[in-house]
Batch of 3 targets.
Target 1
Amino acid sequence: MSDTNERPGQLPIGVFDSGLGGLTGVHAIREALPNEDILYLGDTARVPYGTRSPQTVMRYARGCASALVRRGIKMLVVACNTVSAVAIETLQSELAVPVLGVIAPGARAACRSTRSNKIGVIGTTGMIASGAYAREVARVNSTAEVFGVAAPLFVPLVEEGWLEGEVPRLATHRYLTQLANHRIDTLVLGCTHYPMLRVVIEHVAHDVLGPDARVIDSAEATAHELRETIGTAVPRAEEIRQGRLHLMVTDLPQAFAGAAARFLGHAVDDVEVIDL
Ligand code: DGL
């Protein structure tokens, strides 16, 4: 990775998540900004975060963020809704680089999408308990209602690669049925692992919530906002070469490489293990 001070635009964008989920964000950022280098950290030694207390998530988040900042990054994308829900303001005030979370962009995209002013959000237990989407939606649209449902089985399904078939379908059905009476027209995937289950979730959402229900991916919404804003507070990479991706984890690099290939759509051969 390039880390020259003379060309700060060439520093990578740092991205982290508890594990694999943030790779949906990486995929979206690479589509939106193909020239940018990305330094990714998946905290595979401590995944999942979504079942832990806000204090623990905050401690883990500080560890991941400092490891990336020490390596040299021009900005940090917190590609984890659970961390974004409890730690984004702290990270923004403590770190010397700009920090972007996934919840505010996801909430703004949901507000643009909804016609009924009723938005559903699925996410980890910790993220749903935080009420973070309702707060962010209220900043944009004070009349919109947000209904959250925790979907804790989705992260282990994704980490195990169970992305289709009866088990994810039945789990999705059970979770979305809890939203069926609220007449929502927009469903936010409020966890960066969930886009890997998007085909199943969309299918069930159309059955349970109605054929016009729209699904919003918070990681994709974040990448779109990044494409619009990069070049102002954060310098752009030069447009002369393809951006590089460097992957780091805190445990099990081989298992991560196999699963990462599914997320990214290409083989992954080099994953570095770091200690936080
Ligand atoms: N991918 C993460 C999120 O967006 C969390 C998964 C987990 O560690 O529980 O919330």
Target 2
Amino acid sequence: MERAYASPMARYDLLAFDLYGTLLDLAPLAGRLRALGAADPEKLLKDWRKAQLERTWHLNEIGKYEPFDAVTANALAQVAPEIDAKTRARMADEWLTLPAHADAPAAFKAMAAAKVRCTILSNGTAKMIRAALTAAKLDMEVRSVDEVKVYKPDPRVYALLDSMAPRERTLFVSSNPFDSDGCKRTGRIVAFVDRHGQAPTIAPDLRVNSLTELVKAVLG
Ligand code: LAC
């Protein structure tokens, strides 16, 4: 963890969090896919997530938009056409009840106690985000790309935060490297949560190994 940011309680008016992977743990999906009959659930999950994100980037490229629940369903149909439609629908529904990462509940409890304003900023639709937050027993504001009908890392997504707090007092938090990079490219302040995946290509302002470390850095 970088120390330079370890003080400032009043440094940020707003913390904005990516959802899938950052607050919610995607890994348990594999077990659920297995229970629903997937032969190689780890591979299916990896292929599905990749196809899901690639579909959002392709939609951005061609200037089209479809909501993230449709993206998620279509990505699964693309990588696993052999699975019947009913089972695929049940698999897609699992995105609504993903568990929080183990470090999330205490982190948000601490931030609520310190009255730090927190929001989600996610590719998910508001409905998907709210369902997932409820299931994960987390509660905060919700901003969705659905408001601008374009996906991360389009700058219009991160600009949604500008109506909430001054840019220099907003910290965006993500464990998805393309998301951290995308937000950095817009000149905003970014914390990267290293969940042992790929690293971002643009240096984030803060790099932490957990939300616990993030809280320490933000609250001092
Ligand atoms: C999100 C994707 C990037 O929550 O995980 O926006």
Target 3
Amino acid sequence: VKAKKAVAEKACGYVKDGMVVGLGTGSTAELAIKRLGELDLDIQGIPSSVRTEGLARSVGIDIVPWKEFLEKKPRIDLDIDGADRVDPDWNLIKGGGGAHTREKIVANASRLFYCIVDDSKLVKKLAGSFPIAVEVRPDSVDSVKRELAGYGASKLRMRDQKVFITDNSNYILDFSLSVGEPVERLEVDINEIPGVVDNGLFTRRKPDRVFVGYPDGRVDTL
Ligand code: 5RP
């Protein structure tokens, strides 16, 4: 927790009055949102999930609701979000929380994207390090699963013995990457499978900075 808190606070140090701020999803992003609440800045937040929206509102951050954001597409000054894995080229795996589709939309609309992670997230290679989340239309689960089999086995994400449903009313297939295809190509190839909404690889919109936290509270800025 110390590591996550340290990076969250570090990234929040870049947020200034008047900014439009992308709010990530997950335990690390949540620490940043709480910190922004404490800082009591005059900002507008763009939440990347329903959960994040609720938390941001509860700590007093002025929120642009998702639909309004999509309609008006204001430019976001800075997006602060976590990740499940980060490779040496700053390619990311996200989607452990199932929010990667909106998170990618927010990151893409942001002038700056600061990624906040603890040191356990750093890996030499993304392949095999963490399941890749693929958001799928519910009617396409079986066909996408068959297509994904060429890359590795996939599993429908469950929560409390029920199918996990995303904020966009879709399902998630988590697949373990077993082939050595470059992740940059894979991100695009998976999204070309009919029925796929988006996947948790972030290789196009990479972070502009990665803040890495350590258990003693030290932070490295990459
Ligand atoms: C959610 C995400 C999160 O950023 C990722 O899962 C990291 O979460 P945490 O900070 O809890 O480790 O991509 O979809």
